[in-house]
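Lay summary

Proteins are chains of building blocks that fold into shapes. Our project writes down both the chain and a compact code for its shape. Here are two examples, one after the other.
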Amino acid sequence: RERALKISAVTIVASLGSKQGKLESVSISLVPSSSHPGTSHLLCSVMDFYPAKIQVKWFQGQQELSGHVMATDVVPNGDWTYQLLVLLETPPQRGVSYSCQVEHISLEEPLNRPEF
């Protein structure tokens, strides 16, 4: 079933480097489930941003999926930037639109990365 899912790896380079902050990249990937072989989950990776305060949400169409999301802590990279991984625990369904929304001070408006 997973082979039928269209994966469009999306990477955006924002590199705003403003006085207010920076956000280098946001990408979405399909990762295999370690607890349920044969199923996959969507992972939103937000890399090389500062300051550390950030908000990441998953959406199915226009509906926020707050109850099915697991995130790492914001992790320092050692160069004053941070990274965050946010996993959508519900396996994606064929024909359904998913997106990862990022809110950060370096962005003028929330950034939406669509998947599928």
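And here is the second example, written the same way.
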Amino acid sequence: MSVEESNLPGVGKMFAVDIGDERELRIVIHNTGKREVYLKEEPDADSEKLFELSDRLARTIGTILDGSYFQPVSMERIETKLDKDSVLEWVDVCETSPAVGKTVEELEALEEFDISIIAIRRNKETIANITSDTKIKQGDKLIVIEPEKGHGKLTEICKG
């Protein structure tokens, strides 16, 4: 899947999303916040407008699609793209992981990672005010910001 971004001077931005079978979804975000969604069925065809959304409605639908309200159980990895370079990811720590017993500071200091652990989900509670000496425990879910390029390395360590 590829996403191409184009400036539309005086209008806003357009994102062209390759959805397979040579089809493309085009999303125009106006400077006013209005969103328009178009479908281009073939490379040489014109785009057909599917619908239009207000800024508020688009943001609500976006959070639903992003999984903020519901995460399907079958998902192996939960991640959210923050921008073109960063990903917010939920990483499960299994019992055989070398991360168990390490502090947040020790995990963040590993040279192969460029990560920030921003919270830990433990026993159905979220620990949002973690410190550098907070210890990682078996069964924790780490909420991490990491670069898009090479993300997933921490997931491999936490699997054990």
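What can we say about the second shape? The mean pLDDT is 85.
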